[in-house]
Known about the structure:
The structure holds two protein chains of two kinds.
Chain A: H1 31-41, H2 73-81, E1 103-106, E2 119-125, H3 135-149, E3 154-160, H4 168-176, H5 178-186, H6 188-198
Parallel strand pairs in A: 2-3
Antiparallel strand pairs in A: 1-2
Chain B: H1 4-13, H2 20-31, H3 36-43, H4 46-49, H5 57-76, H6 84-100, H7 106-117, H8 125-135, H9 146-161, H10 163-173, H11 178-187, H12 193-209, H13 214-225, H14 243-254, H15 261-272, H16 280-296, H17 300-303, H18 308-320, H19 325-341, H20 344-363, H21 368-379, H22 383-403, H23 407-428, H24 444-456, H25 461-475, H26 490-510, H27 520-537, H28 542-561, H29 567-586, H30 597-612, H31 618-642, H32 659-664, H33 666-669, H34 684-693, H35 698-720, E1 721-725, H36 726-729, E2 739-743, H37 745-749, H38 755-773, H39 778-783, H40 786-792, H41 801-815, H42 828-831, H43 834-842, H44 854-866, H45 874-890, H46 898-916, H47 926-945, H48 955-963, H49 971-977, H50 1000-1008, H51 1024-1045, H52 1050-1053, H53 1057-1070, H54 1075-1090, H55 1099-1123, H56 1126-1153, H57 1156-1159, H58 1163-1173, H59 1179-1193
Antiparallel strand pairs in B: 1-2
Helix pairs in contact in B: 1-2, 1-5, 2-5, 5-7, 6-7, 6-8, 7-9, 8-10, 8-11, 9-12, 12-14, 14-16, 15-16, 15-18, 16-19, 18-19, 19-21, 20-21, 20-22, 21-22, 21-23, 22-23, 22-24, 23-25, 24-25, 25-26, 25-27, 26-27, 26-28, 26-29, 27-29, 28-29, 28-30, 29-30, 29-31, 30-31, 30-34, 31-35, 31-38, 35-38, ...
GO biological process, one term (chain B): DNA repair
GO cellular component, one term (chain B): cytosolic [4Fe-4S] assembly targeting complex
Protein name (chain B): MMS19 nucleotide excision repair protein
Amino acid sequence: MDNKDNANPTILTASELPTRQIKKRKTFASDADAKFADAVSRRPLFLSDPFCDVSWSDGTESEDDFVEEPIDEQEIYDLISNITDPEHPISLGQLAVVNLPDVEITPPPSANSDPHALRRVLVKVTPTITHCSLATVLGLGVRVRLEQALPPNYRVDVVIKEGSHSQDDQVNKQLADKERVAAALENDTLKGVLDKMLETCA
Amino acid sequence: MASFDDLALKYVLSDGDDNDSPLQAATAIENAANRVAVGQWVASINRWMTNPDDTADDDLISRAKALEFLARTLEFLKRSSLKPDQVKLLVGFFNSLFSSDHRAGISASSRALKQLTAMDGFRPPLGNEIIMSVAKLGDDFKRQAPATRLEIYGLVLGLLTNPLVAEDLAYQHGSTCGFMTALLEVCRNERDPQNLMKWFEILRLFLENFSPAKEVLTEVFKAFSDYFPITLRASATPSGITVDDLKGAVRACFASHYRIAEMSIPFLLNKLDQGDAVTVTVKVDILLTLEACLARYEHVAQGIVPYANQIWASLKYEVRNGEIRDTIDATLKAIGTLAKRLPDANLRDFFLAAWRDLGDDLSNATYTSQAGQLLTAIAAASPTSFSMVSETAVPHITTTLRQTQSESHQADILALLNSLLQVRSVLTDVAGENLNLKDELFGDQLFEDGYARIWDSGAGPHVLTKSMDGMASLASQRTGGPNPQLICSQQVCEKIFRWLALPSIIYPLEGKVLVQNTSEEDSNTICNAATAALGRAVPLHPLGFQQLVLDFLSSIPKLLENERAGSMDKAALLNESALRLARIGCSATTKSGSPLLNFVVLINGLLRGLHSLLKERPVYWIAILDAIHIAVLRSADTLAVLLPGKELMPIPDDPATKGQQWITRIDKYIQGLPQIDSDQVGDLNLTLKSLNDLEGDVVSSYKQFQGYSLHVVAQLYRRFTSIKSASAVSSSMDASLDEVLGLSTDFALSSSDAVEQQDRFLYQLARLATSVTRSLSADVQQELELVLETTVMFHGKDGKSESANFRSRASRSSQADNQGCRIVFSPADDYRTAPLGLGLLQGLWPSTLDTINPLETIVPLCETLMKSPIQCAGSRRIALDAALAILSNKLSDKQIPAEEWSIALNGLGDGYTQVSRRAVTDSPDVPTRLAIFKSVLHFLAGDVARYRPTVAHNWLLRTICDTAPSEVTIGRQLAQCFGILVSPKDCLTKQNHALLKPFRGQWIYQETVRPYFDKCFPSPSPSPEQSGQDDRCATNRSVAVFAILRHLKYNDYSSDADQIVRVVIRSLAKFGVSDDINAVMTVLCQLLEHEPERLKEHLTALVANTMAVYKIARNVDSSLAISQAPGKMTTTRSDAGRCRHSALSFMRRLPECFEPRYLLPHRVSVLQGLSLACGDPVRGVRALAISGRKAWSNLS
């Protein structure tokens, strides 16, 4: 694509993107420190035997990596923010096409809610310029990614953020039309573009 | 013998290389009685030489071959075979070919001439003739094949490297060097990389060895400089020469002699000044070539001095306006070399010229960093240049620092000052020279004018870190010369230490920050910078480090007073600060006094800190104890690196420093050590003084440190244990003991809810003891009676009469029957001291245990562990189990004969009988039975690690394997315990001197798994009433199998992979949600990784069952969410999470391991399952499901 709609978009650096706050762990200034600290304060091997009822909590390390956490907005954001833009080799997160505040889950996720209940995920996409011809492709990419990564009880809606595109009504109509979406995925060229966009998703 | 004619004909007619004919010809010439033979040999090719002008290709080829025959013969000929006149004649003959036979004769002639030049009869004037003949080739030279040209280059190069020929050439041609002019004419336009390498070498040799006239020099310079900058095109047939080789060869020409300086340096600078037209690679090439010239030109006054200012004028912009690191580095290197080569007077002129630019740039925030780099490059060149630079630059730097307001400018100026200080430190380390390094500039005044001002100005984090870095370097500055002394005054050094201690040690404990309103990240950066700076300064300032330790100790009460933080957080802060102290003090040895100085001061200080915290909660004890442990390990590591040959441990003993002397008398070497068991916190000043006087090489220091470490362990053991009257503790005590060891009163004073932390403290103390004792050699361990210490825990070595009595009684009672001593684990305080005994036992060598009485040790221990109801539980019991494993592993056969071994086994066998006994009224409850069973397995685990394949020896193992999983009520739990046999254990590691046979995995597999595969399936036709039981037994058996297999290596069981797959399939369906499923999955993933082929036939069952496991684990999860109590729920839910994770990991890997055609039949159902799994409650499992879904949907 030689004639890019927006040849010079604003790009955020990786550190500016919203990330999940990782639980604070002890950090060591050097590998040598970690080596010694491991020898001294790691959990003794015999406590890993079955039925071992001796606890070994020192307040710093989480014993259990299998904590239950519902799918939240940040997780949805993480799923779609690393989709590559069809014009530039840059992620949608870095281009601020998808933003954390524009991801909405209803009913809101909570630890005690029924995991099988029907949920709706609404993602508002912000094209980099108001006349972006690839807005539909962007929306389609987000939609396909979420449909591939969310369980069947999640309904995905992708819309263009109000006021961010000159023809947002039309684009929204296309994105909401299931038949047109299905037809678009049958199109080999479009499928190729989408595959390329989703290549960078883990 | 064949005539020369025949040999020549044979050679010419041969297809490939015929070595035989030339060899025969050479032998014939050597054996010939007269000179005629040589004539005949040359004449043998006459028939092909008759018509040199003949252009027929066949004739050309045969003529070339005939000439080659002569050349090859010369290769085989002895160097003394030809007389000088014969050599001359032959040279004449081959020379003539250069003018007469350009098509067939050149290659062979070159080869032949090369041989002739090596002959004894070769006379130097002939060299000139050869070169002049070569020159006659004219334009035909470039038409020769590259290989032929290579021969000619080789010939010329050989002549030029011969000093006699070179001398003759110089004599004959004088400064006109006609031969070179002729060669230049012929050889220009060379393009072959290999030939160019030779050609450049010829030019370099010529420039180095001849004194040509200026015109010739210009010609020669043009010959190689035309190639600069040289590149190499990618070729289909690589020559093996890289572009770097070519660059090096051209560079050597440029740097060959100062005579060409007047051309080379302006040429290079001119190329450099072409601006943007020059690429980075070329620029670096130019700069490195210039650097080579500056480094190698011998006559500095003529070769370098005239161009110094010109070089500076060009190069300064490369740094000043440069952006590419490679270019900047190369420029700085060239400038450094220039400064190094210039004589003092010229250096001063050069520097003054440079300073005119740099002085202004330093005042300008935009160019400070670049000017700093240039100044550092000049300063680092030599001590003279350093004193010149610092004399002018340092006052300017302090002034600029005072005047500037910009933080980045300050940071750049400080970076320059720090670099100068570092350069100075390096120059000071050049011992033995009387250096003038401007000591007066780097003293208190610089501190006051520079760093102190910045510190007081409330600068930001970036400037502060630079300033702290510099202060540490300043405090380490010493005077130049043979007896270096610190330059800064004591007061300034103290002040620096006090300041650096604030962000690194004191403020973190007091809950303050150095710079208000900074982010946590910036605070950490400041803290780490201060720590690193202190680490660099302390090797020269033991007193400063001592003060730091005292500051740390005095801040601890303030930490405890902080009511806002919880005790766990405060303990973590305490530990982090103590670890920082360890990083500061234990990363390097001190420069004067004993290398141990800082190590001992720190550990003494930490012991004092521990003593002051004994009334507080045990979490603080652990924080300090862990820091002591890390300080011990770090210090030992630092010393071990310095050991000759870097051998680690243990060090061989020599009689002079035999164990007892250096270990028991460590307090004689080092005074003022703390004895916290006697409430003495020691005298740090006295310790410092005695360590200052204690000299010694690294090996003896290392031993002293081992002695000191043991001294620390001993006093901690004594402090936290106390001798108690046996009757007061328990009535069921061993009658032979009237006193036993229990916990000290420190534990009684603690609140009861801290018991768990106390036990953890005891474990950590035991770990410290293990680290210290295992570094001692077996002899030393024996000499120190460490086996006895496992029972008496160093009591009796502290000079107190009551404990001495206890020690001697324990020692006497154990040795009364002369059978060696015994290890007793004290039952007092519910066996809570057992981990301490284990800590010492774990680090002992097997040969150290030779002194014990095995029966008296093992049998009582077995009795204790086999008792019902159980005597002790939790971590204490695990410690006793581990001790049992160590004893069964390390006791030698010699020491414990078969009959005694069977006594021990019988005891355990009886214990197992209790486990398997059921439906009897007095049978123990389930937890007791399991505990007893685990103890038995621990004993066997130690034993099988160094298995002995006799049937009599292994009856207990076999009985247990045969019967335990079939136990009706608790068979499943018993089966799960089988993992203990092979699971990794701290006590059974090489590091702790355990006896581990290399093939133990295979042996255990053969004994405990292989015979039982059939039993993993229910019998085909059971009676109806037995079918349920049979099925359960088979499942239990499978549980046992996987509990063992999960810890074995794949190679141990790969031979039975097919059978294992069948058990896997059944187990997936039968195990339900439990940790057992994870064992199955571990084994399955091993199979998939090593031999996926074996799974191919079973994919349908594996896929279906694994997805079913996932589904069940998911459902269990949701049902538990409602039904289970919170505490229980956590464990079980995380178990279920683990199950789901391992199931999906397997599914995720399948598409990578198999071709799609094997998986496509399952694609739809798997994708359906995976899409549901995308809604898993655990985030990690969801991520696996998503990537699995992607992999499976891509199958086609």
